[in-house]
Design a protein that fits this description.
This protein is mainly beta and about 90 residues long. The protein is built from two helices and six strands, in the order H-E-H-E-E-E-E-E.
Length: about 90
C-alpha cells in the first residue's frame, strides 16, 4: 500500500467504512488526523513529490500546462495523470 500511496502522490486519505478505518488505522506511515461522525482523515507521513524520477519543482500548473523548474537529471518522470494535449516547459535555474 505504501508503494501505491507514493506512486499516486497521496497525502491525505478520507474513509468512512469500518474495514477502511481498521486497515488505514494499522498502516505504517499513516496517522489519524481527525474524525467527524463516521469519517476519518488520515495523513500520509512520507514526503510527497510530483517526481517519480529525478527532481525539480512544479512552479505552476493549469489546464493543459505544467511549468517545471530546478530540474535535475536527464529524464524527468512526473506523477501526474496524463491528459491529451498537456505540455511542459523546462526551465533550469542557473
Amino acid at each position: 500500500m505504501a508503494e501505491i500511496l507514493s506512486l499516486y502522490n497521496v497525502g491525505w486519505i478520507l474513509v468512512h467504512s469500518d474495514a477502511a478505518r481498521r486497515n488505514f488505522g494499522m498502516l505504517p506511515g499513516v496517522r489519524l488526523d481527525g474524525e467527524y461522525s463516521r469519517l476519518r482523515a488520515y495523513v500520509v507521513e512520507a514526503g510527497q513529490s510530483y517526481f517519480l524520477q529525478d527532481s525539480g519543482q512544479v512552479q505552476a500548473r493549469g489546464h493543459n500546462n505544467l511549468l517545471l523548474g530546478d530540474i535535475t537529471g536527464a529524464q524527468v518522470i512526473l506523477k501526474y495523470h496524463y491528459i491529451l494535449g498537456i505540455s511542459s516547459v523546462r526551465q533550469n535555474s542557473e
